[in-house]
Amino acid sequence: MKTVLPDRQQSLVQWVSQATGINTFGVKVRLRGNNLHILCEGTECPERWRTLSDLLQALHQTDLDILTSDEQPSIYQVFVYGRRKGEQRPKWCHRVYLNQIDKHLEQVQALLEDSEKSKQSPGALIVSNESLARQGNPEAIARYLSETLSTLGVSVQAKIKPYKPKNSQPEEDRLWIFCQSSYSPDASLLAEPIAQKLRYLKLTGYQDAIIVSQVSGETAPDWLLRVDLTPPEVMLKEWARWGDIQAIARLLTEVLSGLKVAVQAFLKESTLHIFCSPAFDPLGSAPIPAKEVCLEAILPQLEAIAPQGILAATIYGQKAGDNEPTWIDWVALPATKYPAFATSPLDLANTGDEPAIIFLLERLLNHDLDWRLLTGGVRVLLLNKNDLLHIMCDAPVCPGRQQVATKVTQFIRQLKIPGIMGVRVYGRRAGNKEPFWNYGVDLEHRQRLVPEATPEFAATSKYVNDLVTSETSEPILRPDLTTEEVQTFVTEVARNWLTTASATAKKFLLQSQLFIESNQSAEQSPNVQGLKVALVWGTLGLLLTLQTDWVLGRIIASTTSTPKLASVLPSSSSDQKASLISGKTQSEKTTFFTSTTQTKSSPNQSSVFNASEFTQSDNTPTNNLAAAPLKEKATATAILLAARSQMPSFNVRQLDEQLALYKQRLARTGNPPDVLIIGSSRALRGIDPAALSKALANQGYPNLDVFNFGINGATAQVVDFVIRQVLEPSELPKIIIWADGARAFNGGREDITFKSIAASAGYKQAFQKVATTANSSDLPENKVNSPEEKIKEEKPEVSAYQAVNQSLNQVLASLSSTYPNRDQIKSLLQKQLLILGNNQTVASQKQLTDGTSDESTSQQAVDFDGFLPLSIRFNPARYYQKHSRVPGNYDNDYKSFQIEGEQDAAIQEVLQFTQSHKISLVFVNMPLTEDYLDPVRKQHEQQFQQYMLHLATNPNFIYRDLSQQWPKSNDYFSDPSHLNRFGAYEVSKKLANDPMIPWPVK
């Protein structure tokens, strides 16, 4: 609800008080939409006609827009109420149209002169806004609509603007309706009422009207709606031309209504049967309609209509309820002379005739003819592309998927149109360019599937292309702000910011317990017991430090006495440093780091390892499975890049390394990848970027860059954080493949991965991207500073405390026996850690011989596409010798399983983000083994399926379910719930062949 601003309200109250003579305490005003409401009250109810006469004379001399704020909409109507003080309801109410003040004044003056005479002539006739709106006047149309919308707090303004179609047709007028409100009204609630009121006017000269709804103060429209203004008579004639019996009967009834004749029509084979009877005959005494009169009215109409597929018409005259007609006449229709009219619409549709298919589909979806004439109904658009038939259904309210998709696909399946092997159905609100939902069915097995994005329908582009860009600067949408208003706003914001910042800093200092409030007593009596405890522990710490220093000194002394170790290790270290610092290629660095974690083997031992560097087991399956070639490992490079990155760690090593690889890909290519795969370990191991890129190339999408950003343990919260906070919008592709399953959306279990990320320094910095970007822009300049500047940076101003600290450090270093040999201690520790790492690698290889260790697989290296290829094949007999069989009711991943909660909120944020950035989001429910899907997990999977099907109604979101794809194909899995590289290859091929995924085209 909108109310007049306080200062303006006072001006209106004073103006009404001066005009009517009523005390200001007895006047109240309120502005709702385009209507001004004035309440006049007193100890006695104000006299109606005297009050109205005074007020109308004042209105005749005053422009109300001057008394209201510039930001308020124009006033179209004034409602005046009168009541006695203390009463709840007014005694009288009068509506005044401001565009007819003279007529209102004349009418009220006549009633005022002789109010005692009830039969007094009411004076001038007040013309309704509806009558004026039928003439096509935009201001009258706005007033007509505001009668309904102003009660909802919606103001209306109408404009007529010329429009130039793209197909070189003559310029035509288009009606624009701008609705403004203080809230966001639901389009589904306003669409049909607005469409009915506009179509009820039967406006001529307009093909359509565009409704623009906008919230006050915002610059972008909230929603758009296109209303088809085709007259109902034209719609009836169009359907009658196609032989629709109900439309023909409606037209003939309108023609014969003046003769008081009712018409009923039926079709039998190719003959139309028309029955004429009295329109009103309750007593059964009305005469039978005359044959000559009926034929004279009906035959010209049938000749003009020329219904498709109807060869003849039989016309009957009878009374209602009679079994036999009084007279009969038979007439041939144009279809007997012109063979083109003889084919029925259904036969034409079977041959692929698009106009016939459109008529039959519109008739199928618009079962209520009256509703179609009132609102425009559901409109159907066709596009035949390759072997697919794309069908768009739009209406003022988006047609429901369940009510439309099944009907349309079943009808097209019955037609058996030659060359059509699949149907794609879309639904949207009239005026939108993108569909709200989509549905696809393949009628036959398609040898070559070409995945395509939703096509643009040329028939609607002319109504949509200029909706968003050209009309957003209308004065009604956002009045210009004055300089004083902007300065006032900035001052208030700055004052609030300073107050909040001061309070936050004060709270932080008090919580540190280093400061206290100035009005609190600062007692300085020391705690003697606390000092004693501190002294004891300090002494113990000092003794421990001295003993550790002595032990390390002895170790270094014994090490330096053996020249072999002392000579080998530093030289190896120096070689490593040289190889890192030298300008070698990235592949040489990767080879070096990979070789440091492996032991050399003789050539005759090379057969012990397979292509994935896993040891061959005794029971390795002999059947060969297809898979993409293995690529170079990138773990060592990722570790190095993550260590050099300026971004703090996220407490999840794999996230740090995957992010480092992704940033390196961006720096190398200059553009984000075309396809980004994200999710948990099921995505990391389950979709092979190389296989997917190759399969897409075979389908007509060459040179697509694919990257796998899978992270072990990633939930919906982790994916949301990576997409919206870690990566910039410019670093995201146009399509994201989210591969995971039900357990990633369990809001009832503890999200350990996200909690680790939330406690990291990288998490805090991710929310300060703007400041980080600004600081990082100075780095190149710092790298090229002059030597003098470097010296200044290396020797900052030293305070007294820092000087004392440095002197103490120098004294303690001179007393220590290990400080001068600190480099040797560091090298010795590195050597011991390296030996420990090799021992762990040997142990992990022994476990991998059985092919049953998940811990070992997590240590394997990803490639430069972020993919983790595993060659292990799941063998239940051997797997459960090493692992316990955990049923679903004891699985922590499904603990307290529920979809609602923080995970659901995360995916909603992802959906909103991807929709706002025009990013297609495809969720793939990854395959699982039959061994994994026990009854408990199946129940949770079914709940998850329903949840995903509900989300699939969102635009730009596609759900593909592969969970039951290969339940018994254990060779495609590395464990019960994760694919190996062979399964990843098959999933990648299946996704590339999916026709519902809108792959990008370079």
Can you give a write-up of this model?
This protein starts with 5 loop residues before the first helix and ends in a 10-residue tail after the last helix. By secondary structure, it is an alpha/beta fold. 44% of the residues lie in helices and 15% in strands. Mean pLDDT is 77; it is low at 1-6, 458-482, 519-526, 561-622, 774-798 and 840-859. The protein contains 36 helices and 23 strands. The protein is flat and about 130 Å long. The strands form six sheets. It has a five-stranded parallel sheet, with helices on both faces. It has a four-stranded mixed sheet with strand order 1-2-3-4, with helices on both faces. 30% of the residues are buried.
Annotation keywords:
four-stranded mixed β-sheet; five-stranded parallel β-sheet; 15% strand; 44% helix; disordered N terminus
Explain the layout of strands and helices.
Elements: H1 6-20, E1 27-32, E2 35-42, H2 48-61, H3 64-67, E3 77-84, E4 92-97, H4 101-113, H5 129-133, H6 138-149, E5 154-163, E6 172-181, H7 187-200, E7 206-215, E8 223-228, H8 232-241, H9 245-256, E9 261-268, E10 271-278, H10 291-305, E11 312-317, E12 327-332, H11 345-350, H12 354-365, H13 369-375, E13 379-385, E14 388-395, H14 401-415, E15 422-429, E16 437-442, H15 458-464, H16 483-511, H17 528-560, H18 563-581, H19 586-595, H20 635-644, H21 653-669, E17 675-679, H22 681-686, H23 689-698, E18 706-710, H24 716-726, E19 735-740, H25 752-758, H26 761-766, H27 769-776, H28 779-783, H29 787-794, H30 800-815, H31 822-849, H32 854-857, H33 876-882, H34 902-916, E20 920-925, H35 935-951, E21 957-961, E22 973-975, E23 978-979, H36 981-992
Helix pairs in contact: 2-4, 8-9, 9-10, 20-21, 23-36, 24-34
